[in-house]
């Protein structure tokens, strides 16, 4: 379970203090599929980065399974990100000089998994997203939808509890976007907690719950409201 308690995040831009999140409280239960929506600059990506351990709040606490991750030192934050979280980004963030298999193995290298086991786990993750026949292809030899599936396989390979998807279909056409949304829905049905940041209101309706952020504050909305 994720609990965001009284969290604020401010940035200093020159002489100005910008508030990205303002006393936010959010609770996300295990196994949920949550869409975070809102206009550009609303704070939705900031919230994802904080819960994902990529940034720390200015004030407040973030609990994941009862542990306040906002208080973790760098070493333990890295372990948290590697073992608990899987990230899927709009820009894929793949190494074009490496094969799909090598890209997916990267988190396992950081986790200290041995060579043979590492390769087997990466192959299994690629098969899970329907790319078992593409393990030796490089990203430049793949479509956008295939590259995003490699990104999802990489997010899955350490068997995390939570998958963060930041605009996962933003660089895809509608057909490939639909395939990625179906894949995320399937993963959620298998028990993964999915937290998706999106501008696409139609895709947000595929989630089980929608959180809207505006001017750094959150509100629950029904699917009929968007």
Automatic annotation (TrEMBL):
Residues 2-226 form the ABC transporter domain. The keyword NAD does not apply. Signal peptide: none annotated. One of its GO terms (cellular component) is membrane protein complex. GO terms for molecular function: ATP binding; ATP hydrolysis activity; transmembrane transporter activity. InterPro entries: AAA+_ATPase, ABC_transporter-like_ATP-bd, ABC_transporter-like_CS, ABC_transpr_LolD-like, MacB-like_ATP-bd, P-loop_NTPase. SMART domains: AAA. This is ABC-type antimicrobial peptide transport system, ATPase component. It comes from Clostridium pasteurianum BC1. The lineage of its organism: Bacteria, Bacillati, Bacillota, Clostridia, Eubacteriales.
